[in-house]
Design a protein that fits this description.
Layout lengths: L19 E5 L5 H13 L4 E5 L6 H10 L7 E7 L4 H8 L4 E6 L7 H8 L8 E2 L5 H13 L3 H29 L1
Parallel strand pairs: 1-2, 1-3, 3-4, 4-5
Helix pairs in contact: 1-5, 2-3, 5-6
Amino acid sequence: MKKKSTSAKKKISAVTRPLVAIIMGSKTDYKTMQKAEEALTEFDIPFITQVVSAHRTPEAMVEFAKMAHTKGIKVIIAGAGAAAHLPGMVASLTPLPVIGVPVIVNSLNGLDALLAIAQMPRGVPVATMAIDNAYNAGLFAARILSTDSQKILRKTLQFQKAQVGKVKKMNQELKKLRS
């Protein structure tokens, strides 16, 4: 699968409604969260990206979480660092799948965010990605959407096939190095 630049992001219009919402607690999280945009762009999945702070704008966060499904959103990717309340709070309020991305913001190297996102109580599920791995969050969103879209499923299968090809190429290169 060819990699597209983030400048080729899916434009949102009346015809192309976003299927994925990428949200983050602060603009500083964008450096990490833009990797989710890259993955979704590779799969031609329309998305929106915005700051939704659990601490600074709790009312807006509640409104977003409760209403996302009425706007055609199918999956929410939520990135946050430190206390990382955003993914869990959104998951407690929405019927949609929430993918949490722990973001490195301080001296604990994202471990605090990882634990906050992964240790959700029963009944409030958040699919937790590795620290700073928003790209995998985008891939996971594509896999969720592929259950209801043949187009996305085909792209997912192509992506997996390309991964196999990359490993074969690595092994060929390794063999040459050892000869």
